[in-house]
Amino acid sequence: MSYQIEIWTQTRTVCVIHEGTVDLSDMESSRAQAVAALTEHGFSRMLVDTRAVTREPTVTEHHRFASTQPLYMPMHVAVAVVVRPAVFESPREFEKLSVDRGVQMKAFVDINEAQAWLMRITN
């Protein structure tokens, strides 16, 4: 497992922190645990921090993951993904795939901007 789940009660956010090598299995497993935590706490904000990832999922893995987002991600949840500046352009396609499937999602380089966006668009 290359991730950890944190509950940020002050901002009512579930945070998924990925590090090292991340693949489709890691993304699916972390999503399942994060959605369970969102449901348990009644939160509508998820922040996914990928700045410590050293090996990104493949394009195919991103496509497979995005295609299943509507099946597993509650519609009221907003997802902010924080990435390293060097990979900022590549999440744009994943972001578009998820948004096209009805998921409120946006990629950021700055974690503070990500948190501000989450606070602005959710209650």
Structure write-up:
It is built from four helices and five strands. The protein is α/β, with parallel strands linked by helices and 123 residues long. The chain has a five-stranded mixed beta sheet with strand order 1-2-3-4-5, with helices on both faces. The protein starts with a strand and ends with a helix.
**Form type:** globular
Query: If you compute it from the alpha carbons, what radius of gyration comes out, rounded to the nearest whole angstrom?
Result: 13 Å
Annotated CATH topology: Transcription Regulator spoIIAA
State the helical fraction.
Answer: 40-55%
CATH class: Alpha Beta
Distance between the termini: 31 Å
Order of helices and strands: EEHEHEHEH
Topology (elements, then pairings):
Layout: E1 3-8, E2 13-21, H1 24-41, E3 45-55, H2 59-72, E4 78-82, H3 90-100, E5 104-108, H4 111-121
Parallel strand pairs: 2-3, 3-4, 4-5
Antiparallel strand pairs: 1-2
